[in-house]
Amino acid sequence: MLTIEGLSGGYGSVQVLRGLTLTAAPGKVTCVMGRNGVGKTTLMRAIMGQLALTSGTIHLDGMALHGMPAHEVPRHGIGYVPQGRRLFGPLTVAENLDIGLMTRRKGAATRDHVLDLFPRLRERLSQPARTLSGGEQQMLALARALCLEPAVLLLDEPTEGLQPSMIQLIRETLIRLKATGVATILVEQRVEAVLSVADSVAFMAQGSVAETVAAQGLRPDAPQFQTYVGV
Prior knowledge:
27% strand; Rossmann fold; six-stranded mixed beta sheet; alpha/beta; 8 helices; amino-acid transport; ATP hydrolysis activity; four-stranded antiparallel beta sheet; 10 strands; globular
């Protein structure tokens, strides 16, 4: 269980997060939605130790992550696919995966399992990451994160700019991960994508979670989408 309580922080003198509280349970997808600028990406960066906090705590199964150096956070089982993917472009697909494997000292069995999820990557192991299509790069970013065998997976708008077949592949992958007990925090703006995979939706406003709703009880025309997202 990832537990975030009273989280506040930002960039220099600009405060973005304001007392944010959120939980992510094993085998569940928690979707975070909100208008641009409310702090969704900042929340992800805070969990990954990339943001100076002024208050609040982050715990994974009782272990304190707040204050931990950023390079240590993934070693405790937090996988992260940032917006823009952040691949190592000159390195091959295999080398990008190896970086994920080395983070938590995983081996060939983990690599094979990940490639079974994304068989297209198996065909491109020797290809530089920067030469992949946008959809293939997103596959690789997700595959690299899964090489950690994460307890928690953070995804920041993974379907942005992708064709429907790739969006469907990401959805199917998230459903498989739920079955293995991975807790997922998904930042997503597509209502249909959210309702197809999320267990709960946390709506952000002004740097905090204003309302959390069970996804099962939401419809595409639910007032929360207009209030918090503008769709």
